[in-house]
Amino acid sequence: MRWTQTFIHTLRQDPSDAEVVSHRLMTRAALISKVAAGIYNYLPLGLRSMSKLQAIIREEMERAGSAELAMPAIQPAELWQESGRWFEYGPELLRMNDRHERDFCFGPTHEEVITDMVRRTVTSYRQLPVNLFQIQTKFRDEIRPRFGLMRGREFVMKDAYTFHADAEDLDKAYRAMEKAYCRIFERCGLGYTQVEADTGNIGGSESHEFMVLADTGEDAILSCPDCHYGANVEKAEAGPVPSAPDWPLDRSDRPKSVHTPEMRTVEEVATFLGISPAHLIKTLIFETDEDFVAVLIRGDLEVNEIKLKNELGCTHLQLASEAKIEEITGGSQGFSGPVGLEGVRIVSDPSVMALEVAATGANAADAHLIGVEPGRDFEPSMVVEIRLATAGDPCPSCGKDLVEKRGIEVGHIFKLGTKYSEKMDCRFQDADGNDQPMIMGCYGLGVGRTVAAAVEQNHDDKGIIWPLPLAPFEVVLVVLNADKPAVVEAADSLYVQLIEAGIDVLFDDRPERPGVKFNDMDLIGFPVRVVLGGRGLEAGEVEVSLRSDGEKRATPIAQMVPAVQALLVQLRSQ
RNA sequence: CGGGGCGUAGCUCAGUCUGGUAGAGCGCACGGUUCGGGACCGUGAGGCCGGUGGUUCAAGUCCACUCGCCCCGACCA
């Protein structure tokens, strides 16, 4: 491809709305351009990178036994009503009507459509398993789209679905997918880690996320420096906590109220009372699907809302509003406590029950209670492990201290079980003639997000440094002095040689000044560069270099193609 | 959804407080000089100052509404 025949218009200045490196560079390098919040054009260069990733995905999915199909972007409401998600999904689901006022949505995922398709066709265990994937544009009306392709509203995703007669067979497919994902990210040259994940509202029994490690990642993960354990903080098991220091104040037969004007935070109250944050019982009022719950956690610890949600078995969970807190507790926010609290369930973390003496809010304005003894002064309706794990907690598999890292979630695989097959009546007859729901798995991989993650992980202050497999072009041929016919003629010939050698090359044939061309070449980040100018031509040489090291290798013109090929081989073997 | 900010040339932004002929840099076009790491000189094109309504002799500037975009928050009291 010639530069003058494609559409590459780089930006000299940073776009005003780009925050993270990948968004900034992908915009400046003319890979993407914004159409609306969270909605982008994939420009020719960006599309090439996306296509290359898609080709890798296709190969690996097929290797893992999955067949490609394509499902519609627009889906009828009926299917979503059947699964119940029409009502559960909320405003993230983009809904629309056709001219007959029938309800549709733009698919954010395709469990409903594929389950419907499979149930119409598959009736016997002899037809199982089924393993299908698609690469498709999806839409999720995110609360706050940001970071370019990292959290867009419209995005390209590979999603696969499997259907099985039994759990062992699902496990087999799950392991194959796991392996396929590892191969995909390895082939892309990305540093990634696989972590245990929560299954979220989508449901299911086992789940892993694939995270590309990057400081700008939106997810916190805990991993073990020694063994292979890694988990999303939402999922990570919290180890035992060190017990609180000795209670520094007097003990009494019953809690004593103290005046704590405007002391709302744990820090403030602890300092004011002269106790440790670990002596406080933090009391949070949550709103669930049907009621309100008071949740107790030791003052120096945090609640894992995902664990709490799972323990409560609810789908909706959020902190109650200020007004509700006052209605329920009689005190304002920051002054809630379990003592004498009535009308709501009280859920406590074991860390609270382990306290001998504690302090907590008095459910009254500007007052806290001291000398509170869990079990004597209040009795929770439920004691469950709901603490958020943090760095320093012991690894569940080997006991070492876990460390926290940040990552970009690029893949997520689930064992769904029968959640959708039961609701949507997707059943089969087993060998004994019994009617059973199929057991399902689903496997997502963000295509745009993976490309963005690659940029996030591979760049310098000049621009992108593409890993070879995802580069829009593997090689760029740059002609300087494009006003001199002899140089142009020589460059044309080099271009033809590269094309004939089957090399993936972009020919920068623009009549631009050298500085402009060099800067664009660095910004876009083609892995291998071939530069020919008047000076070189006279010496019978071209300059071959790598984006990654910048070292210029003067090469006889006749040796250009083999020199480029050698560098490509070198890059491939890295 | 709450808080904050911003919409002025293709891009990045001044000008708005204090109302009075629409600005800069980059980019673009033309001419010239340059030509191996974002050149220089000259000439020029390019704006319903996001939209609607109001105040005023007069609005990019003040007021109201509205649309769009960005940031923070929406979880630890």
Describe this structure in words.
The protein contains 16 helices and 31 strands. The two termini are 27 Å apart. It is of the alpha+beta class and 574 residues long. α1 packs across α12 and α2 (44-63) crosses α12 (447-457). It has three domains: 47-237 and 404-455, BirA Bifunctional Protein, domain 2, CATH 3.30.930.10; 256-383, YbaK/aminoacyl-tRNA synthetase-associated domain (YbaK protein); 473-573, Rossmann fold (3-Layer(aba) Sandwich). The strands form seven sheets. Strands 3, 7, 8, 9, 10, 11, 12, 21 and 24 form a nine-stranded mixed sheet that branches. It binds one RNA strand of 77 nucleotides through residues 11-17, 19, 34, 36-37, 143-144, 146, 264-266, 282-286, 295, 297, 299, 301-303, 305, 318-319, 322, 325, 332-336, 361, 388, 480-481, 483, 512-520, 522, 531, 533-536, 543. Residues 38-467 form the Aminoacyl-transfer RNA synthetases class-II family profile domain. It is an enzyme of class 6 (ligase). Its EC number is 6.1.1.15.
Gyration radius, to the nearest Å? 29 Å
Secondary-structure class: alpha+beta
CATH architectural type of the largest domain: 2-Layer Sandwich
Uncertain regions spanning at least 5 consecutive residues? none
CATH superfamily of the largest domain: Bira Bifunctional Protein, Domain 2
Tally the structural domains.
Answer: 3
Q: Could you estimate the helical fraction of the residues in percent? A: 25-40%
| CATH fold-level name of the largest domain | BirA Bifunctional Protein, domain 2
Largest sheet: 9 strands, mixed
CATH class of the largest domain: Alpha Beta
Report the average pLDDT across residues.
90
How many strands in all?
31
Number of helices: 16
Beta-strand share of residues: 25-35%
